[in-house]
Structure formats: C-alpha cells, structure tokens
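Hi F.,

I've been meaning to write this up properly since the lab meeting, where we talked about keeping a consistent format for the predictions we share between groups. The idea is simple: the sequence comes first, exactly as it goes in, then the structure tokens exactly as they come out, then a line or two of notes. No screenshots and no reformatting. I'm using this chain as the first example so we have something concrete to point to.
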Amino acid sequence: MVQRESRPLDASLCGFSLELLRATLLNSSTQRLIYSCARMKTITLSLILMALTCAVVAQYFILRATHFDPGARVLAAIDLAALQSAPAAKQKAAPANSAIERTRKLVDEIRAAAYPELRDAQINIETFEDRADYFRSSFSFSRYLLPGKMRYRLLVNPCVFESQAPDEGVRAILAHELGHTLYFTQRNRIELLGLVRLAGKGFTARFERWADLQAIARGYGEGLKAYREWLYQHVPVDRLAEKRRNYFSPEEIDAILAAKQKRPEQMAYWLKHVPLNLREIQAGAQ
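Output, unedited:
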C-alpha cells in the first residue's frame, strides 16, 4: 500500500530532475539512466537523485554567473591537446604554474592575516582562461557528493600577473574570493543548493558585493579600489556595465570606507543588508 502511494511522487521527482539536468550539464546517456531510476519506483533513490541534481545546478550557476561555460571549456581543452605539441604545452604551462604558486603564497598570507575562520579549509588553486574575469571561486563538486570534509576551489587567470595588476589590488581581490569561500564554509550542503539563485542578476550582485564587503571589513578596501580601477582598463567594453552592476565601484568603495571610519558598526548591518548602489550606501551612512 505504501509503495503504491509513493510511485507518483517518485516519477514526479525523477521527471523534474531530468528536466533540470537536460537544461544544464548532462548528456543523453545520463538522462537514460535517470529514466531507468524512474522505472525502479524507489522513492529513496529519487530523493538522492533530486539532491544531486540540485547540486549540479547550483555549481552550474556559480560558474555561469561569471560567464563560465563548462562544455566550451572541455571542448577547448580537447582542441588544445590535439593541436599543441609537447614543447608548446610545456611553454604554456610555465605561466600557469607560476600563477598558481604566486596565488597560493598570497592566499596563505591573507588567510593567516585576515581569515582565521578559513584556517583549516582545503583550498585548491587552479588556472583558467577568460577575457574579462581574473579570479573565481567555487566548491569541489566531487567532494560535495561524498561524505566528509568539503574542498574549495580558487581559480586564477595567469593574465592578471602578465598584465601587471597592482599588488595591493591582487591581494584585495583574493580577499574578496576568500569571502566567497567563507560563504561556502558557513553553509551546509543543502543550503549551498540555494546558489541556483545566481541565475538572477539581483542575487548575483548581492553575492559579489557581500564578498566585497568582507574584503573591505578586513582591511582591503583601498586595495579593492585600486583593483577595480585597473580592472576597468582590462575588460572588454561590453562587460564593463556588468562589472559596475555586480561589484562596488571605486566611488562606492570610497563611500563605504568613509562610513566605516565614521560608524564601524555599519559594516555589520551592510553584511546583512547589502547595498546595491551609491544611494543606498549614502543613506546607510547618515
């Protein structure tokens, strides 16, 4: 009797999971597997599948929020491997390895100085390529699916060093990225599914500006301002408006620093109620 009543819910969950996966990352073989799960009529399996699906979608939107296309990345990697000779590949690996080493050193210094909460966090440093983004953060999807301690990822575009970004700016934007890592560590696996909201521009702006506030509150405000001034000169024109919308501009950072000096307690309020423009910052500072 109980098993018969669970079947409609089981099929509904599997059907919904399939639609989510079809709209994001998985291929036809995986979709056929999901259909097989639906025919098994096992509600426990469907609930697990639903959770995994939401995790995939959450991770997808973290990457999509920064214009990262996982499929394109894989295809590009395949093409690159096919076209490059071994010497050329080694030559390209040199700046990537250097960027990883420099970033690791800076992350360790910033974590020790400003993020005691992340002392025991496992953060892997990796590289990526993009024409407008220089750093990104996410959590390890493979570790998400397994019991035990979560792992986190901080990605660096080697071009940030080749383009001579200011040292204090690089430190500040890494403090911003560690703010994202802090956000991940403060939430359990179920709560991380809420990152599907990154599909919306409003949540993306709050998500990024919250990390900005973490960096500013920990003493990296001037460096963050220097980074944004540099960034505006090193992104395509068609991405500039997006950067201004999602992150604090130099003018907004100045206003936040002035308010912080006058009313230090204001930072705690803003971390709960993230301001989205200069007007909201000025109103909160009064």
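Notes:
The beta strands are 122-127, 135-139, 151-156.
Residues 1-31, 37-43, 66-83 have pLDDT under 50 and may be disordered.

If this format works for you, I'll send the rest the same way.

G.
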